[in-house]
Fold this sequence. Notes:
Elements: E1 14-21, H1 26-37, E2 42-48, H2 50-55, H3 57-60, E3 63-64, H4 81-90, E4 98-103, E5 118-123, H5 134-140, H6 143-164, E6 169-172, H7 175-185
Parallel strand pairs: 1-2, 1-4, 2-3, 4-5, 5-6
Amino acid sequence: MRSIEAPDLAELRVLLVHQWLYTWAGAERDLMELARLLPHADVLAGIVSPELRREQPVVERAIESWVGRIPFARTHHRWFLPVHAAAFATFDTSDYDLVISISHAFEKAVRPRKPGAIHLSYCLSPPRYLWDLSAEHDVLAKPAQRLALRAGRAPLRALDRRMARGVDRFVSQSGVVADRVRRAYG
């Protein structure tokens, strides 16, 4: 059997992709740990809170997508989810050997453009408001949100599945999440 040498991660150009950096919670701590393991990696986020940028070193170095320049995008980020998908899909990744999306929404739309580059999705969960907890989200939503969720659920599910096809490998934090990934994306 022929052995395969793993590349030295320090020699790879790496991009870490996160949906939005407006609060400091579990997903952001995952980003921080990945950035600690890959200190040379660039960080891309759909939107970045200026306050959080001042408080967290990993956020301070984040590149904000063009979504952050849209009026109200920072204060109403959830309404801009499909726009985030477009921003991630069009981001120039041609310099990167490895793209890692920390995924709970549409950051997995990012596409490696360099030949041989890999997209690894550390999937925290498929979007629960689209998949396994959609009924619970309907109950908790305000009327306008409920209407938007119901009208947009089918096209957003289709978009989510299409984005998942661009991922080379999914990694999950538990067997439960891995099962959700299998059910949502096959």
